């Protein structure tokens, strides 16, 4: 995407203070209104008032304003090719990129100041072709002469000090490269703009200046830096010569003046904030002969501002159409049966919910979302919480009105909680589902205090049930350990930890009690793991003792019938089988150490 008037983009930033201003105005208005009338009775005293609708209108107005601003920038995308004839000069900028251009006598440094000035210079040369030569100890054509100023600027931005590996400053070679880069068939004046600090370490620039004069190429020189000189910074300090002395780069004006005057051009010394390119253009380049270039194809971008203007119009129309839910109710009364609407409302107020349901049927057929919402309210009053929850779910799925959806989500969560018996196995899942509904309702209306309270209530139910369930599992597991049912006990401990994990990760209330339970489960799991390790170690000890004929120690290890071994055998049946085989194979050893008791005669 391009912009035909990019200078307008900066004015779009004014949208930020406008947003802040509108927010402040809304708050001031609400504060003044609250001083006159309590916010609890706004819907009764001021039926047409809606803070949410007011905010929505403000957002639509700001979006319309933003689209108008974008339209003024003339956005362009998509293109077509057209034949055009171009008249202009051929200009080549020869830019010094040696390390001496890092000197900071012109802030931020010589090279950066030159790049900024060239970028501004390009804006003035409408129709002129421009190219770019970078040089230091050698030179190369960075950008051939072109009228694609965007491409030229991009290549200019890519330059940096040291881009040419060979150090030094070879002005003669740089001028030769520039002269060879011109189109020999062009009849337009050819111009070279040399931007450097004037230091020259190779060749004879004056010899090249004579050749430029013969080829009718004008040379304008711009000296960057100060006569007094400046140190050249690097990451490790300052550049030093071979003798270890700090190098100071000074402006060599004498050479640059001779070069420029010998070709019919002139020399300009740069100053902070003014490199001198404007003077070169106005006094030296603007009066030169323009050549009619050959016909070529040019890319012309399509103007797309009309899309943004149309979007602004749509936002303004939408702002005028924003209405509260009461408008839908009015349409219901006008488009449907006024008698039915009056009958169900009257029956509902009297508490005659059966007749209210019957009278609501025709309204539900015409406006299913509103009808389902009101059916949910009636069923809730009738203590039919399951039916109420389903009706509110239907209203959520059918409506596109955010106000109605927020209320239906909240009421559905309330119906779920009301229909859930306390302290049952299903309470955790239902309470979690209700909490999710309250969170969705708060997403649509973050300022609903009742939804926040019920969300906290649902979360507390979830937490309480998780803690209750985990406590029961751990208590049962402890009892199982006394009966050596270690495998089932381990499953209970692990399941308890899984149930308690969300309490610490998501909900956080009662986290201390949950942490204590998890610590208790971890201790028991570690005890079971130790029992396994100790039993395996005892079996290894028995085997090793048999090999070294230490039968007493082997028999002790095999005959030990500790509680931890019983737990280990229940955890690992294969370990138990292996241990029993070891005892069977070494029964003679056991009998030798511990002879079986003879029966008393």
Secondary structure: elements and pairs:
Layout: E1 2-3, H1 15-36, H2 42-45, H3 51-72, E2 75-84, E3 87-88, E4 90-96, H4 110-122, E5 129-135, E6 139-146, H5 149-157, H6 171-180, E7 190-196, H7 205-214, E8 217-223, E9 230-231, E10 233-234, E11 237-238, E12 248-249, H8 253-262, E13 267-269, H9 277-285, E14 291-292, E15 296-303, H10 305-321, H11 325-335, H12 338-350, H13 353-366, H14 368-381, H15 385-398, H16 402-418, H17 427-444, H18 449-482, H19 486-507, H20 511-547, H21 551-559, H22 563-571, H23 573-585, H24 587-593
Parallel strand pairs: 4-5, 4-7, 7-8, 8-13
Antiparallel strand pairs: 1-2, 2-15, 3-14, 5-6, 9-12, 10-11
List keywords for this structure.
12% strand, three-stranded antiparallel β-sheet, alpha/beta, 24 helices
Task: Explain what the structure shows.
There is one protein chain. Among the domains are: 2-80 and 308-321, no CATH class; 86-294, Rossmann fold (3-Layer(aba) Sandwich); 533-593, no CATH class. It contains 24 helices and 15 strands. A hairpin with a 2-residue loop joins strand 10 (233-234) and strand 11. The longest helix is centred in the C-terminal third of the chain and has 37 residues, at 511-547. Helix 7 (205-214) packs parallel to helix 8 (253-262) and helix 19 packs antiparallel against helix 20 (511-547). The protein has 601 residues and is of the alpha/beta class. Helices cover 60% and strands 12% of the residues. The strands form 5 sheets. It has a 6-stranded mixed β-sheet with strand order 6-5-4-7-8-13, with helices on both faces. Strands 1-2-15 form a 3-stranded antiparallel β-sheet. Strands 3-14 form a two-stranded antiparallel sheet. It is flat, with a radius of gyration of 44 Å.
């Amino acid at each position: 995407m391009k912009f035909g008037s990019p200078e307008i983009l900066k004015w779009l930033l004014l949208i930020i203070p406008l947003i802040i201003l509108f927010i402040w105005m809304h708050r001031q208005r609400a504060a003044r209104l609250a001083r006159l009338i309590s916010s609890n009775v706004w819907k009764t005293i001021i039926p047409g008032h809606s803070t949410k609708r007011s905010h929505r209108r403000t957002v639509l107005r700001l979006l319309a304003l933003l689209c108008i601003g974008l339209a003024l920038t003339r956005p362009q995308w998509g293109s077509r090719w057209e034949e055009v004839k171009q008249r202009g000069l051929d200009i080549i900028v020869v830019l010094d990129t040696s390390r001496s251009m890092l000197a900071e006598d012109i802030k931020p440094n010589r090279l950066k100041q030159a790049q900024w000035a060239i970028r501004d210079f390009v804006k003035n040369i409408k129709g002129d072709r421009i190219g770019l030569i970078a040089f230091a100890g050698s030179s190369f054509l960075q950008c051939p002469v072109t009228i694609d100023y965007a491409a030229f600027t991009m290549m200019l931005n890519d330059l940096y000090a040291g881009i040419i590996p060979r150090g030094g400053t070879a002005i003669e070679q740089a001028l030769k490269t520039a002269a060879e880069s011109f189109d020999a068939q062009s009849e337009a004046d050819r111009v070279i703009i040399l931007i450097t600090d004037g230091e020259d370490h190779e060749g004879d620039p004056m010899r090249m200046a004579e050749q430029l004069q013969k080829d009718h190429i004008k040379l304008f020189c711009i000296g960057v830096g100060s006569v007094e000189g400046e140190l050249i910074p690097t990451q490790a300090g300052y550049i030093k010569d071979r003798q270890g002395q700090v190098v100071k780069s000074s402006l060599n004006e004498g050479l640059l003046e001779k070069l420029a005057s010998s070709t019919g051009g002139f020399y300009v010394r740069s100053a902070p904030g003014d490199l001198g390119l404007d003077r070169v253009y106005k006094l030296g380049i603007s009066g030169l002969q323009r050549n009619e270039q050959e016909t070529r194809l040019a890319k012309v971008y399509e103007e797309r501002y009309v899309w943004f203007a149309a979007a602004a119009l749509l936002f303004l129309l939408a702002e005028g159409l924003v209405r509260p839910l009461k408008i839908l109710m009015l349409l219901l009364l006008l488009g449907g049966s006024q008698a039915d609407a009056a009958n169900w409302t009257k029956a509902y107020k009297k508490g005659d919910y059966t007749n209210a349901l019957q009278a609501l049927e025709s309204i539900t057929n015409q406006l299913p979302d509103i009808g389902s919402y009101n059916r949910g309210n009636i069923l809730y009053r009738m203590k039919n919480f399951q039916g109420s929850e389903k009706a509110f779910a239907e209203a959520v799925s059918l409506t596109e009105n955010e106000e109605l959806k927020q209320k239906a989500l909240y009421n559905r969560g309330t119906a779920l909680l009301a229909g859930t018996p306390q302290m049952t196995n299903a309470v955790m899942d239902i309470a979690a589902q209700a909490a999710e509904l309250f969170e969705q309702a708060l997403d649509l209306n973050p300022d609903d205090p009742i939804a926040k309270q019920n969300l906290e209530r649902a979360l507390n139910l979830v937490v309480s049930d998780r803690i209750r369930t985990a406590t029961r599992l751990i208590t049962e597991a402890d009892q199982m350990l006394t009966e050596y049912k270690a495998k089932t006990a381990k499953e209970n401990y692990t399941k308890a930890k899984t149930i308690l994990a969300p309490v610490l990760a998501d909900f956080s209330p009662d986290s201390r009690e949950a942490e204590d339970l998890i610590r208790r489960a971890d201790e028991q799991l570690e005890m079971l793991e130790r029992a396994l390790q100790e039993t395996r170690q005892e079996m290894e000890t028995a085997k090793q003792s048999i090999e070294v004929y230490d039968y007493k120690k082997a028999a002790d290890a095999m005959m030990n019938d500790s509680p931890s071994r019983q737990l280990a055998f229940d955890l690992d049946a294969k370990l138990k089988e292996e241990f029993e085989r070891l005892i069977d194979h070494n029964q003679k050893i056991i009998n030798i150490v511990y002879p079986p008791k003879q029966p008393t005669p």
